[in-house]
Amino acid sequence: MYNHTTEATAYIDKAIVLQQKHHISQSKGKIYYAKGLKYLEFGEFSHSYSYLIKALNIFEKEKIFFFITLTENALGKVLGMQHRFKPSDEYFNKSKIGFHKLKKYTLESFSFLNLNINKIHSKKYQEGINELLNAAEYYPNLKKGYGLYKIYNGLSQSYAYLGNYEKAIKYCEKGYEITGFLNLDAEQKDFITRIGYIYLAKKEPLKAKKYADLVIQYNKKNKTISNVVYYYNYLFLSEVSFANKEYQQAHNYRQISDVYRNKMLNEANDRRIAELKTIYETEKKDNEIRKKKNEIKYLEQQKETANFRFYFIILILFSITLIAVLFVTYLKSKIKREKIESTYQKELLELELSKKIKALEIQILHAQMNPHFVFNCLSAIQHLFMSGDKLLANSKLSSFSKLLRMSIDHVKNNFVSLEKEITFLNYYIDLEQLQFDLPFEYHFQNNCHHNLNDLEIPSMILQPFVENAINHGLRHKKTNCKLTIELEESEDNIIILIEDNGIGRKEALRLKNLSSFTHESKGLMLVKEKIQALKEINGISIEVETIDKFDEFNSSIGTKVKIVIPN
What is the pLDDT of residues 5-56, one digit of tens each? Predict the structure, then answer.
């Protein structure tokens, strides 16, 4: 995925260069718009948002109304993917009004459908149903073809979430028919899976098995399915077999789904590691080339110096002894100075290379942290599947895919905005709560005066502390569990406080020693290594202080971690 994005955006960058070189009058906004759509297609939302905003500013200056409306619609999609529904709805409403003024009613209808997707994600199911039914009557293109498929898809999801299974199945069957007519195999399989899950929720496993058989046929028919689709397909088959008390078959399907899950994760990690290695090797080759060029240059200088010396010695033979001594002294002084300057330049070059190589090592360290985090999240989602809440699990899988994309995006950058890191933590905490019988309370307090988008911190540095607070502080506490994240800002620093009311470090260590479970999270150790690397390379000194909290009876009432990051 990443390689295709890089290749596509590289060609767009070349187009921008050629436009500037040949003074082509075509708007840069169209190129930025194309680049933003390409990043959106491959899930790189931060880059997509940046280029679409640039395009929108240009279109507004040039007063190109049609492209203004198209760009607003694309921005609505980007923000919706990031679960920022309020600004997303604002852009979709703007594009809807714009398309209506332009009499582009088909495009207007799809802006309306995008608004409805936001309502489903915001759990406003009945409101979304009412608007979908009205839209089907108002927009002619939604009565047939791909538009009708979108209507059935939205209605079936909304009714399923509301527990109205009969209507959900009705619209799934209609959607199944139209996707078959339109040859939309993947979308048709989604309807099959959705009906199967509905029958499982209705406690009718035999009917669900019928649709499981259709999924098996789909797997046999399509030989180019991605590992992600295989993973979800076999997970569905496992759930249906388990409900029908075919436990051995359910176990087999679960093992197959685990294989594709591991392939999915390994492919993502392998692609990133291969990319990092390629960058490393390229940098290494460039460094070797520069080193050889410097050596050649140094030898040429020595050769020129030797030639100068030869002719100068001939001149000295015809000169007075005093002049000869003065010239020899000057020559030796010049050679010594050139040697010192050459050595200094060489040391500077080696220092620059060392910094670049260490920067690559930090990215590889990020890649080691990413699988650690991914497997923790998968454990939480798997726990939800095993608990039997299939509809909620299906919804959380969609959130998890966005979380995975965000974590991969974090690996690419040494620093991210504080708002993006907090959004990342919100996704993680939401998934961790699934493992608790009673979800713990989570509070976020922002006391910063600046916009969080304008404040940058090292990426992936907060999550291990939150994970530690949940797993070692709150997990062993039965009731009234609370987790608080508070942001403060001083003149020179950003201060993050992560506080829990758990059992405390001393009790957590005692329980750990009593337990036979010996696995240890390496998240905190990796964070410490990363903090040290940042200090060595960039001179950034990050302070971490862990504070044990006690009540008036000297009993532990939790732990507070204070992280101070230079602003």
Answer: 444 444 445 555 555 544 444 567 888 898 888 888 777 888 889 999 999 9
Closest CA to 548 of 505, 510, 511, 516: 505
Phi/psi region, residue 559 (left: phi>0; alpha: psi -120 to 50; beta: rest), is beta
Each domain of the chain, given as residue ranges in start order, spans 2-222, 226-387, 413-566
Judge residue 108's burial from the number of C-beta atoms within 10 Å of its C-beta, 0-12 exposed, 13-18 middle, 19 or more buried.
Answer: buried
pLDDT, the chain, mean: 78
Question: Of 384, 399, 385, 378, which is closest to residue 240 (Cα–Cα)?
Answer: 385
Residue 235: which of 459, 429, 394 has the closest Cα? 394
Asked if 400 and 349 touch (Cβ cutoff 8 Å), the reply is: no
Q: If we measure between CA atoms, which residue out of 372, 420, 414 comes closest to residue 276?
A: 414
CA distances from 34 to 54, 210, 296, 371, 421 (A): 11, 44, 45, 32, 27
- Other CB atoms closer than 10 Å to residue 428's CB: what's the count? 22
CATH for 2-222, options being 2.60.40.790, 1.25.40.10, 3.20.20.70, 1.10.3720.10: 1.25.40.10
- Using a 10 angstrom Cβ sphere, with 0-12 exposed, 13-18 middle and 19 or more buried, the burial of residue 532 is exposed
The distance between the two most distant Cα atoms of the chain, rounded to a whole number of Å, is 114
Distance from C-alpha of 382 to C-alpha of 196, rounded to nearest angstrom: 19
The end-to-end CA distance of the chain, in Å, is 34
pLDDT tens digits, 353-370: 446 435 544 554 454 455
Q: Of the candidates 407, 423, 425, which has an alpha carbon nearest to the alpha carbon of residue 371?
A: 407
Contacts of 503 (CB under 8 A, 6+ apart): 473, 476, 477, 511, 556
**Angle at the Cα of 376 from the Cα atoms of 372 and 381, rounded to 5 degrees:** 145
CATH of 413-566, one of 3.30.2130.10, 3.40.50.1000, 3.30.565.10, 3.40.50.720: 3.30.565.10
What are the residues facing 563 on neighbouring strands? Answer: 496, 544
